[in-house]
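Table S4 entry, YkgJ family cysteine cluster protein.
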Amino acid sequence: MLNPWELLCFSKEKKISTREFRDLYCEFDGIKLRFDGKPDKKGQNACSQYVAGFGCSVHLGRPLACRLYPLGRQIQFDKAQYIFEGEKFPCLTDCAEVLQLPKMSVGEYLKGQEAEKFEKAQDEYLIVMQNIADIGFELLLDSGLSESGDIETLALWRIMGNEAPEVLAERIGKEWIDYLMLPEIDDSNENPTIFAQKHNELLLLKAQEKFGTIKTNEELHKASVLMIGLALHLARGLGADPKAISEHWVEIAKSHGAKE
């Protein structure tokens, strides 16, 4: 799964535009790398960037998921926790040569993988995700829509959390998907925090431009659904569970007077 910063890093390493990389090598409009390479011994298709006899063709631009493998990462109390579910690392059987490598701590491993920038990008985009969702909340709760007796908006929030990513992407539409995955930002800056913050500002400006003058309940409903859908799509690219998040957001909205 990919966030917009990782999509940019891939494209720069590939020496093509972000749009070209997305359209050639990604699924669900950019949030997932395509695995359509030659099947391995287990019958699993290789990553689209894998070259037989060579390895990863864009190794320096690889995303956080690749840099962490086989570890998982979660944030608890504002601190990253690194986890592994299972009794034995798959690389001990799939890549026998790792047995000859020196043992190291998780911290040493992550430093060698140069994961810090990509962790920062991940954390910043979690903030972007919540900021997008906040717009959806405001359009529902602060506009008079929820007070009108609307019950359709929260129902769609919940439905979107259960939708397949390609269905949700189609619901969102090409225009906003492009705003999310192909931000018009100077990509010469190597700081992922600044990149994500600029992206956040662009998305807020677009929302203000598109929704600043809407007045009817139908327009407010569509705009709220769109913003929550966009936030859920980004959440999936960050490795989060859209279903759990949508249910959480629905309950928060209901606690503030919205109805379903």
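The first helix runs from residue 4 to 14.
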